[in-house]
Amino acid sequence: MIADSVTAILRAESLGRVADGKVLVEDASFEARAGEVLAIVGPSGAGKSSLLRLLNRLDEPTHGTVYLQGTDYRTLAPRELRRKVGMVTQRPYLFPGSVADNLRFGPAQRGERLPDPAVDDLLTRVGLEGYAGRSVANLSGGEMQRVSVARTLANAPLVLLLDEPTSALDDAAKRGIEALVRAIVRDQGLGCVMVTHDMDQAARLADRALALERGRVVRAGSIAEVLHA
Amino acid sequence: MLKLFFHTPLQLGLAQALAAALAAGVVVLLARRRGIHLESEAVVAMVRGLVQIVAVGSILVVLLRGPWWTSGFLLAGMIVAAGATSARRAKGLPGAFAVSTWAIAAGAGSVIALMTCLGVIDTAITTLVPVGSMLIANAMNTNGLALNRFRSDVRAHVGEVETALALGAEARNSVSPYVQASFEASLIPAIDSLRSLGIVWIPGLMAGMLLSGANPVYAAIYQFVVLAMIFAASGLTSLVSTLLIRGRIFSPAEQLLLPREA
To answer: For a Cys staple, B238 with which of A207, B146, B152, B196, CB 3.0–4.6 Å?
Structure first.
């Protein structure tokens, strides 16, 4: 276990999930800290995405739990938890409509309308100035993923979960998203947990890492310790 | 032509059933030539349908002599059977049988009850049971279509549904586009039946009324009444079932319980 509860925003404790008799994640304990990227690495089928889905309770853990700022997340309303622990998936799954409609989706769920200046500000942060009125149907893959990041940020999360966010992008778009993630996490002091199968990307972006094999954490520590073990 | 050879109603009925089954058999053979094997399913469905309808006809003979309220039990039994049949079209949806049965009871049951109270449906068993069964059967088909479409749509859009959940959407809001699409799609047959009434088809009930000597204008109006009741019963059933099922596919922690499309 990597432990430093002082700066931990999100802390998983003995987290595990068994579904249909198959162990997907077993006894995972770690924490995500403010302003740091924690990479979850491992081969295909190791349980990386399954672990990430437990962190915002898209799936239910069968063992252990997660603490968000010291509070057991099972005591939080799932919607409230998911707003605070935002997720960006491999495919952006944008909703039909304009870029602004997508950014307003999260706040609208709690009856708030994101004002135009806030939309513009979010788009500036992800490098898409002037895109508010554009239809999502006319965006490139990299632009769609940037909208997806901005849409998640519109909920003002404390933690960002990234599930292979660049695996469907070309090299230039990939580097752009990496720079964006680094800037957002460092500048805003967000916690970030990123699943990636790309060790080079983990080395470029992450501060610390967990290596997973068959659902178990086999190595944990600084990015250098984990990647060069 | 068959009437020349068969003189009793039973003989004639069996001969007519055989002729109709032969026509269905030709379709099965044609399908087989194109590599589609419907043989066993078609034979089982036809034999089963014939046995069931003859059994019901025999039961009706007994029930016709009973008091009017016995039709309530018969219709209730039909609703449960319709719920079970409909639920088969929605395998994998949690609680499909309960949802289907409640939805058909609410949709067809309430229309039958209201129309009987208003005197639109006669309380005589000979009217109440056949007309009621028509409403239940159509509600069953609509319900099956709605649940089937809802399951396919949600399973094909797991990513979108979970994205909405991950952004803090209420579970029921995350599937609302699919609830709406399923409801609309399930009502297409009922709407088309109403739209094409008299032009594309003259329904069996009207044909029967004409054959038994009813006034053609009254027969036509009553056929419209029946189709409007079918539309009401089907629409209400679909509305109830899609609203009920959307709550069943999520856990209490608002996690989607349906697997992604294989």
So the answer is: B146
Q: How far is B169 from chain A (nearest CA, A)?
A: 5
Q: A155 vs B255: CB contact, 8 Å cut-off?
A: no
Q: What is the pLDDT of residue B262?
A: 64
Contact across the interface for B253 and A60, Cβ inside 8 Å:
yes
Distance from the B239 Cα atom to the nearest Cα atom in chain A, whole angstroms? 24
Give the pTM.
Answer: 0.82
Residue B139 predicted with pLDDT over 90? yes
Per the CB < 8 A criterion, the answer to whether A88 and A160 are in contact is: yes
- Predicted ipTM beyond 0.85: yes
Tell me how far apart the alpha carbons of residues A175 and A155 are, in angstroms, rounded to a whole number.
Answer: 24
- Secondary structure (3-state) at A23: strand
Name the band, by pLDDT with cuts 50, 70 and 90, for residue B200: low
Query: Distance (Å) from the C-alpha of residue B260 to the closest C-alpha of chain A?
Result: 14
Residue A46: pLDDT over 70: yes
Confirm if A31 and A12 have CB atoms less than 8 A apart: yes
Closest CA–CA distance from residue A228 to any residue of chain B (Å): 34
Judged by CB atoms closer than 8 Å, whether chains meet at A89 and B163 is answered as: yes
Mutate to test the interface with A, among B160, B162, B163 (most CBs of A within 10 A): B163
| pLDDT class of B34 with cuts at 50, 70, 90 | confident
The verdict on B161 touching A (C-beta cutoff 8 Å) is no
pLDDT digits (tens, 9 = 90+) for B48-90: 888 988 887 887 777 777 777 788 888 999 999 999 999 988 8
A82 part of contact set with chain B, CB < 8 Å: yes
Q: Does A59 touch chain B (CB under 8 A)?
A: yes
First CA to last CA distance, chain A? 16
Has residue B145 got a pLDDT over 50? yes
Report which residue type is found at B81: A
Task: For A102-128, write each residue's pLDDT tens digit.
Answer: 999 999 999 999 999 999 999 998 889
